[in-house]
Amino acid sequence: MKFFSTRNKKEIYHFDQVLIKSTAKDGGLFVPENLPHVDQKTIKRWAKLDYIDLAVEVIYLFSNIRKPVLRKLIKKAYQEFKTPICPVRKLANQLYIEQLFQGPTLAFKDYALSLLGQVCDYILKKGKLKKQIFCATSGDTGPAAIHGFKNCDNIDITVYFPDKNVSKLQRQQMMGVKKSNVHAIPMKGSFDDAQALVKKLFLVDKQDKLMAVNSINIGRIIAQMVYYIYAVLQFNNTKTCFYVPSGNFGNILAGYMAKCLGFNIELAIVVNDNDTLARFAKTGIFKPSKTIMTDASAMDIANPSNFERILWYLSGNDRFVQKCMRDLKTKGQYQVPKAFLKKYNACFKTFVCKQKAIKINQKEFKQRYHIDICPHTAVAYGGYKQDKQKDINQVIIATANPIKFR
Question: Which residue has the higher pLDDT, 351 or 405?
């Protein structure tokens, strides 16, 4: 599989290159040259696989790493996960919850970052290279990245996080790791401020020494595709809608890419008070506002970086992406044509769950289904309640163990 930048289709890279480069020289994000179609015979075969074997098959579609090596890396990545690795629990008729917090830091980011640590360390050792990771986190990426990379011989990792907007456990998961290659740095402002700092560092990286593990790294997105496919295969690939709490657009993008492979997936974006995506869905204008702090802190993102990738996927036009990103930088916003917006809204339903509803949803969910949920999952549940379509399988994405936010 070949990859290129959302802003330049001419420069071609391979899987091992884009994982350790993370972002393109032009500031764009890497995307696969194409999304391969999985035929029905293969889908039926995959339905019989456990999570690890399925991950091998899905990720191998995009990888230039030999399958036996990839299998070994994936197996090692998930050895610390609780079993089942990816439980899909039934709540009511055609309603389910996918609990993505079986990993070592109790958040869905573990599914990608535990794997990315293994794969990147393998690539760097093979190439006799070293990398410096700079990472911005709103609370969950940082702990998962630190845990995934703390034992990597060829990687030094620095994580920036908003000092006032992470939970006590999230802070401890970052600050409590005493490794010479790990640095966790609290900073003033929001996640968007931390992310802006990391982007600036990459723009001045002339020697290609830096590496990103935020969801701007395409390896993160590819790894996350697996749990969408795993869930829909539980229903024999019949139509399934996922309600996804959305911050930086990486999680929902993984669902979109899984859908494009040929899986019967519908996608519902659910945002909190940081409603850039909801306003875009109505107007076609992408205009980030000031970040609002909420209980769903990992979603407190006003300018989701991964949205650039959906601009590419729905237009196939790198010049269009360039113009949008240029307008965002110079004007603070951009507007897409009506035809693009229609295509976008055909791919995604969008819902808003405000701060005042989060605790109400948590309490209601506990009373109704006897399960505690985190604030982000409560946002996803808020989207489910607003959706009128109830005649298909519906899966609420649970992104973190609620204990992280007590």
Answer: 351
**Per-residue pLDDT, 95:** 97
Average pLDDT, the chain: 95
Which residue of the set 21, 48, 82, 109 is catalytic?
109
Place of tokens 């439980």: 87
Task: For residue 102, give the nearest of 111, 113, 90, 114 by alpha carbon.
Answer: 111
Q: Provide the 8-state DSSP code for 198.
A: H
What mean pLDDT is predicted for residues 197-226?
88
Angstrom distance (rounded) from CA 364 to CA 372: 10
- Residue 402's alpha-carbon distances to 95, 182, 213, 299, 399, in angstroms, are 20, 26, 24, 15, 9
Distances (CA, A) of 201 to 135, 164, 208, 212, 220: 10, 23, 11, 10, 20
Q: Could you count the other beta carbons within 10 Å of the beta carbon of residue 40?
A: 9
pTM score > 0.90 for this model? yes
219 touches 18 (CB < 8 A): yes
67 catalytic residue (yes or no): no
Q: Please tell me the predicted confidence (pLDDT) of residue 288.
A: 97
Strand pairing class (155-162; 182-187): parallel
| Structure token digits, residue 366 | 């506990």
Residue 19 DSSP code: H
Q: What is the mean pLDDT of residues 328-336?
A: 98
CA distances from residue 229 to 254, 343, 346, 362, 382 in whole angstroms, order as listed: 10, 23, 20, 27, 23
